Amino acid sequence: MTAGERNGADESIEVGTPSDPEAALARLAGRHAVGYRSVGVMAYDIIREAILDGTLPPGHKLRQETLAELIGVSRLPVRSALIQLESDGLVEFHDRRGAVVKSLSVEQAREVYQLRILLETAALRQSMADMTDQRLARLRELGRTADAKQEGGDFVDARTAFYAELYDAARRPIQWELIEQLRLKVGRYMLGWRLVGDDTHHHSHDELTDAVAAGEVEPAVQLLQHHLEGVRDGVLEMLEAESLAQAAPARRRRSRG
Amino acid sequence: MTAGERNGADESIEVGTPSDPEAALARLAGRHAVGYRSVGVMAYDIIREAILDGTLPPGHKLRQETLAELIGVSRLPVRSALIQLESDGLVEFHDRRGAVVKSLSVEQAREVYQLRILLETAALRQSMADMTDQRLARLRELGRTADAKQEGGDFVDARTAFYAELYDAARRPIQWELIEQLRLKVGRYMLGWRLVGDDTHHHSHDELTDAVAAGEVEPAVQLLQHHLEGVRDGVLEMLEAESLAQAAPARRRRSRG
DNA sequence: AGTCTGCATCTTGGATCCAGAAATCACGAT
DNA sequence: ATCGTGATTTCTGGATCCAAGATGCAGACT
Questions:
Q1: Model confidence over A203-254: pLDDT tens digits?
Q2: Does domain B106-242 have CATH number 1.20.120.530?
Q3: Architecture of domain B21-103 in CATH?
Q4: Does the beta carbon of B37 lie under 8 angstroms from any beta carbon of chain A?
């Protein structure tokens, strides 16, 4: 109860930074303020979401004090959250120097997609061997939702729900856990993917559902693989552009004009 | 056979201390006592090792206070360690009631080995496509060491080093990370595996190295897969025996969901 | 006599406080 | 003027303290 009351009402703490991650984070904190059993997991959810939706960009330094103030809790649950996020591979601890948002290198992204293709095509094969009408129906619904939402906060969530059903996550919890870990690593770049990707993917989930419904294993696997490769290429493009952008602006503060 | 001395019957049914896990833990704590930068990671290492070598059996209740005293630190780094271990899948938190050592079900073990076969055969294929003489030499050495050590505390470590080299872990860090996660889940049961496994595996690492050196991909993959399946069967046997032992003296005590 | 409810105790989870280390800034020397 | 060195300041990591929730037992009521 005490935790939910600080809704971060005045986010005017440090207004002035260009992207204002603090204001956005305070807004996130407000949305998550109520209905949590422990503030530790609340802090975890807030920071996690902030990283995944780009509010806290890769490389951003995560000061415990600031985060604690913005979320409205003590530094301790923030530390817990950061430790969890480190295990998730989203943040990185520097020995006595605090934590930063982990950024993904091009090689890492390539490896992630290689692994996703390996794990997800295997999951699809296994899942299709055991398909039921009920799951197909749910799949259609979820696929339609996923295809419809091409942007927004629940963009990733819709896809996650679709693939969870597609891979029959309930029957292979560990495999799904691994897949989710991998998706988490690239989730932050998925938002930008649509911007550079063309429109050929707009109905991919529906097409995939068709192949699954028809029981055609190899075509379905091919569809999935091509889809993942397409997303991968988009993410890679974005990453390369980002790394170029980071290399260029070596602006000194004291540079004379 | 130091590892398998307990007959497994009275092991960890309740909080009852079969052979004083506290004393063993204190010994572990002594070994780890010096040379750590932060006590949080020390606590993590100690508890992790205690779980993996069976000192803290599955189902064991982990009281923060006790652990803190045994390790010789405050409860806070213990909490940090437990949070990390939860992310590793080794312990499980029950909302306001503390943490317990997670136990592995037969289904979970089966899934773990299914995934290990998938990921590790893929890693082997990729690694063999890029083999060098230096790595082969290191591999021979590590394989010999692994085959030699059939017991003891560094039993698992020797194998880990061998497979890290075999899969060229340095070039595929994420894939190796996933493999390590999976190996971690079954590591606690690997110690007992040798007891039920026959002696046909005694030179498996050396044989595997031979196939790798010869550049014969499919035979090497087959060797690896068979090896993993053999270990899997041993672990499954052990798990089934253990679950039977647990089923018999059913001390029901308000089990929770 | 059995069961439900209320109280006491234990244990986790959170906050505040303290110490150690690292980065920064200022001052001095070259 | 620039670089190196030392002091200050800031921030992380740890310990102790406090509150909230859950469990278990005991007593009372049906």
A1: 778 889 999 999 999 999 999 999 999 999 999 988 888 777 665 444 333 3
A2: yes
A3: Orthogonal Bundle (1.10)
A4: yes
B228 in contact with chain A, both atoms CB, cutoff 8 A:
no
Mean pLDDT of chain A: 82
- Burial category of A86 from C-beta neighbours within 10 Å (exposed 0-12, middle 13-18, buried 19 and up): middle
What are all long-range contacts of B140-147, with beta carbons under 8 Å and residues at least 24 apart?
Answer: B140/B206, B140/B209, B140/B213, B142/B205, B143/B205, B143/B206, B143/B208, B143/B209, B144/B205, B144/B206, B146/B205, B147/B202, B147/B203, B147/B204, B147/B205, B147/B206
The label of the residue with tokens 């014969």 reads B216
Q: Do A172 and B111 touch (CB under 8 A)?
A: yes
The H-assigned helical ranges of B171-255 are 173-196, 204-214, 217-247
A55-69, B1-15, B124-138, range with the lowest pLDDT? B1-15
Q: Which positions in strand C are less than 7 Å from the protein's CB atoms?
A: 11-17, 20-23
Domain covering A2-101 assigned CATH 3.90.1150.10 in the classification: no
